[in-house]
Design goal:
44% of the residues lie in helices and 14% in strands. The chain is an alpha/beta fold and 190 residues long.
Length: 190
Amino acid sequence: MKAGENPFAPGRLERLLGFDPALAGTSWEALEEKWRALGCRAAVTGHRGAGKSALLRAWAKRCDSPVVLHFNEQRRRLNEADRRELAEGGGRLWFIDGEDYLHGRDRRELRHAANAAAGIVVTRYRAGSWPELIRLTATPATAAILLERVATSHADRFRADLEQRFRRCSGNLRDLWLECYDDLAGRKVL
């Protein structure tokens, strides 16, 4: 199977799945109302692969010219481009993915700079110093619904052992889809 034909290709998953607040037991309206009640500053929390980044990307797409920054294990520092973006982003909404990856000094700098933002949503594993907007938790049931949405023609192949795969991936949906991708590509899955 060619990568472009694989229903679990990362770009295809991004286009088809996005974030569905109903699967988290909420709606965009309810999330935004709670966010405003929290002073327009809050964290989306959850374990790896629970959908935090997907929620952040989907929310940012709903806004006009947001400031969006991404951090991870390889990118743990604010750089000069980030600092310029933050300085020019006063009065706009900020979406910071992986805020808890930032080194302490950079995290404090971001938090101080956020005073100029119209609002901010960060993703983290735990709320920390940000009030928690929502805690996302992936479940086998959620994985089954998403499987049907993204790979209807292959769902039978994965449905029987989806829960076992989900557990093997520690509930990380991103890793689950990569495992399914490898399976369809004929790569060995541990």
